[in-house]
Design goal:
By secondary structure, the chain is an alpha+beta fold. The protein contains 15 helices and 16 strands. α6 crosses α15 (428-438). The structure holds one RNA strand.
RNA sequence: GGAGAGAUGGCCGAGUGGUCGAAGGCGCUCCCCUGCUAAGGGAGUAUAGGCUCAAAAGGCUUAUCGAGGGUUCGAAUCCCUCUCUCUCCGCCA
């Protein structure tokens, strides 16, 4: 294996490193509430190593810089410099050693800290499982059926518009094939959502890459911890890549250690939150440009390695699904306001479609890695006789911003981390499931929600044939 | 895929081994002068980290000229690898 590039010395920290140093116990307590046990002794040991190594290294660097400056001066005056050179004879080796050890310690610290999830907001209920999530409100009344309701798989397959066995032939389990008016309804949903968010809610539509690099995934928090959930794509063809590496490995420069290979893979996006949010990575945006509100309709790809056995039937849990995403980049003081607003934007879609739902405030145990506070929107599924997640709206506060170094210039003209939010507005596949189940008729047809009919050339029902 | 050129601070742009975190210009901020829709003069103006300090201020210090590595007492400058941008040719939805 060629040597991997080490992290930059001023690394990407996940929590505010200052906060961690000064309030270690408090932070660990908050993390414990969300089920993460922070390794305090290991951290303290690494941190104290870091401190002494860094001080020592910088002293050596300062000495080297001073002597080098003297040498420069002496030389320009034509003075003898041999005694100066003797001065720093051993400095080089000592410095090299110190730098290496510092880098290793920084890297170890970074590996540890990149695993640490965000701190939760004070309004988040402490809990141990999803059972402790708190229902905030409900909208709509579930329809009363006077016939036996079918699940979306039966509805779709009976119409001949949904075909899982062919999808399995093409790709394997957890893929779906939609046909005819059902495929169109799926497309109509995405169009409708985008039109609402751009036309009514003030988001700018974006078309984004579906393959992103590791930096982007690190920025939004999917890497390094959740690589197993992602589909990875080698950047170069294997053959080409091998050729390049063989040549490189044989080269004199590699032998000397001055070769750095580009072995970066790309990853299929698990959500367009990744490309949308990373738009501001390594940027300092103007105060006046906030809030930045972005939306995109993209496919999302998840390998979901850990979840086999759950929702095996139907379109609920797929390796590929479409989603319309909402992202906001906001001033830190406005982010909780923005979370309510963004959640409302997602709700509006369900209201327009006429699908009953409830809003759940997730408890500490059930939240995503990067989130400080999350509302899940759950849509009513009559066949399951329950509400199922269709959207997740989160305020990540400065967590992603810190990883991304995404900042704005505050009123004093100083860079400050932005806050980032994201939410599904909505998951298109699951919305389609909800429509198939809630709008099914006794004869097996499915009514098209009023707001979607204009996108379907006025079609009012999905019927067999 | 082939050939070539490039990447420097908010922007433009100089800088081929030393006192360069980086000339000059633009922009921006503050001050002065002048006074009518302008101009002139002066000062300031990167980011991140560490140590110090009760804290702020301040002080000391380190790193950063696309990224990583190498050579050197010393690298924006020399060498290597990678990434990206641009121009021309080819190919292509």
């Amino acid at each position: 294996m060629p040597p991997l590039a080490l992290q930059p010395s001023n690394g990407v920290w996940m929590l505010d490193i200052q906060l961690l140093r000064s309030n270690l116990e408090d932070v660990a307590g908050l993390l414990a509430a969300r089920g993460y046990s922070f390794p305090i002794p290991e951290f303290e040991a690494l941190e104290s190593d870091r401190k002494s190594l860094q001080t020592h290294t910088q002293e050596l660097q300062a000495r080297r810089n001073a002597v080098s400056k003297q040498i420069g001066n002496a030389k320009s005056k034509g003075e003898d410099i041999t005694h100066l050179l003797a001065d720093v004879a051993n400095l080089g080796e000592e410095l090299r050693l110190a730098e290496t050890r510092l880098q290793e310690t920084q890297a170890a610290l970074q590996v540890m800290l990149l695993q640490v999830p965000n701190l939760t907001h004070t309004t988040v209920p402490v809990g141990h499982s999803e059972a402790d999530n708190r229902e905030v409100r409900r909208w709509g009344t579930p329809r009363v059926f006077d016939f036996v309701v079918k699940d979306h798989v039966s509805v779709g397959e009976n119409l001949g518009l949904l075909d899982f066995s062919t999808a399995a032939k093409l790709s394997g389990a957890r893929f779906s094939l939609m046909k005819g008016p059902l495929a169109r309804l799926h497309r109509a949903l995405a169009q409708f959502m985008l039109d609402m968010h751009t036309g009514e809610h003030g988001y700018m539509e974006a078309y984004v890459p579906y393959l992103v690099n590791a930096e982007s995934l690190r920025g939004t928090g999917q890497l390094p911890k959740f690589e197993q959930d992602l589909f990875q794509v080698p950047k170069l063809g294997f053959k080409m890549k091998e050729g390049v590496e063989e040549r490189a490995l044989a080269s004199e420069d590699y032998q000397r250690g001055s070769f750095s290979p580009s072995d970066e893979s790309l990853y299929l996006i698990p959500t367009s939150e990744v490309p949308l949010t990373n738009i501001v990575r390594d940027e300092i945006v103007a105060l006046e440009s906030l809030p930045i509100k972005l939306t995109a309709h993209t496919p999302c790809f998840r390998s979901e390695a850990g979840s086999y056995g759950r929702d095996t039937r139907g379109m609920i849990r797929q390796h590929q699904f479409d989603k319309v995403e909402l992202v906001q980049i906001v001033h830190p003081e406005k982010s909780y306001e923005a979370l309510e607003e963004l959640t409302g934007h997602a709700e509006k879609i369900l209201q327009k479609l006429g699908l009953p739902y409830r809003i759940m405030l997730l408890c500490t145990a059930d939240m995503g890695f990067s989130a400080a506070k999350t509302y899940d929107i759950e849509v009513w599924l009559p066949q399951q006789n329950t509400y199922r997640e269709i959207s997740s709206c989160s305020n990540c506060e400065a967590f992603q911003a810190r990883r991304m170094q995404a900042r704005f210039r505050n009123q004093r003209g100083k860079p400050e981390l932005v806050h980032t939010l994201n939410g599904s507005g909505l998951a298109v596949g699951r919305t389609l499931v909800a429509i198939l189940e809630n709008f099914q008729n006794e004869d097996g047809s499915v009514s098209v929600p009023d707001v979607l009919q204009p996108y379907m050339s006025g079609l009012e029902r999905l019927t067999a044939g």
